[in-house]
């Protein structure tokens, strides 16, 4: 518009009555165009975000495509949970899972008591007196010392530093006996005592293991369920972004069309005025 107006000499503008106010009007057009360009840049960034989301979703679907047909059928009628409901469900799941794990740990505690009450358990009840026994190479051979008093304290800890999982306690019980067998010669009394008690422990552990495995399976399923709910929430939010983006694009397109029509009308007016100037 400014270029068109610039092509008309000042005297022609004066003679034909074209006001200098047209320059102000052109400046207003420029401002509106700049605003639209800024809006377009913002929309372009949103479009890129949408495309990136779609790309990431596509990759996730491809990586989990094996055996997913049944899952897709199951999820077709699934309602999108709200963020608040998700948080409430997560809190309930965590509380229930913690309660179930506490029960498993209580049952495991019974196994520990049975082992520690054995007549051969006394060498393993307290930390090894490395200095008193003159075991100068103990820490070179044993990387992580362990004993049943340490296990008991951690099982009873109330400050959040205790065991969170039965398998962690199981690993430490095994460590007690494996350390003893590793440091003491195979023919020694301590080695034999540790080997015997480890075998007894493994027998009792096998009785509890199915319950532990079932709890782990349940936790995995609940975690998968929670991740699916989160994915549905993300997809719902993404769909809203897409809808809003489409509305904004339509609005920008409408503004551009209006500007185009206005500029065309103004240009036609200027051309008609120029023709009039040449005729007179």
UniProtKB/TrEMBL annotation:
It comes from the Eukaryota. InterPro entries: Bromodomain, Bromodomain-like_sf. Residues 57-70 have a biased composition (Low complexity). Residues 86-98 have a biased composition (Basic and acidic residues). Residues 116-191 form the Bromo domain. The keyword Nucleus does not apply. Keywords: Bromodomain. Residues 52-98 are annotated as: Disordered. The keyword Hydrolase does not apply. Gene3D superfamilies: Bromodomain-like. This is Bromo domain-containing protein. The lineage of its organism: Eukaryota, Viridiplantae, Streptophyta, Embryophyta, Tracheophyta.
């Amino acid at each position: 518009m400014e270029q068109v107006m610039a092509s008309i000499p000042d005297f022609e503008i004066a003679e034909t009555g074209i006001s200098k106010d047209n320059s102000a009007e052109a400046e207003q057009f420029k401002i509106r165009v700049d605003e639209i360009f800024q809006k377009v840049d913002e929309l372009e960034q949103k479009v890129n975000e949408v495309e990136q989301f779609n790309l990431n979703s596509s990759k996730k679907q491809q990586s989990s495509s094996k055996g997913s047909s049944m899952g897709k059928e199951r999820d077709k009628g699934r309602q999108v949970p709200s963020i608040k409901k998700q948080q409430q469900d997560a809190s309930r799941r965590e509380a229930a899972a913690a309660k179930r794990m506490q029960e498993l740990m209580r049952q495991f505690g019974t196994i520990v008591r049975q082992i520690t009450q054995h007549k051969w358990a006394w060498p393993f009840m307290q930390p090894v007196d490395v200095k008193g026994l003159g075991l100068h190479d103990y820490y070179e051979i044993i990387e992580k010392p362990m004993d049943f008093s340490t296990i008991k304290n951690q099982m009873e800890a109330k400050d959040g530093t205790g065991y969170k999982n039965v398998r962690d306690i199981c690993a430490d019980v095994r460590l007690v006996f494996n350390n003893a067998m590793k440091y003491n010669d195979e023919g020694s009394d301590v080695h034999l005592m540790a080997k015997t008690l480890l075998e007894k422990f493994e027998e009792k552990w096998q009785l509890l293991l199915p319950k532990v495995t079932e709890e782990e399976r349940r936790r995995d399923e609940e975690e998968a369920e929670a991740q699916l709910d989160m994915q549905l929430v993300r997809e719902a939010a993404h769909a809203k972004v897409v809808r809003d983006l489409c509305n904004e694009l339509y609005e920008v397109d409408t503004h551009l069309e209006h500007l185009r029509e206005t500029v065309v009308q103004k240009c036609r007016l200027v051309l008609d005025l120029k023709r009039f100037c040449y005729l007179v």
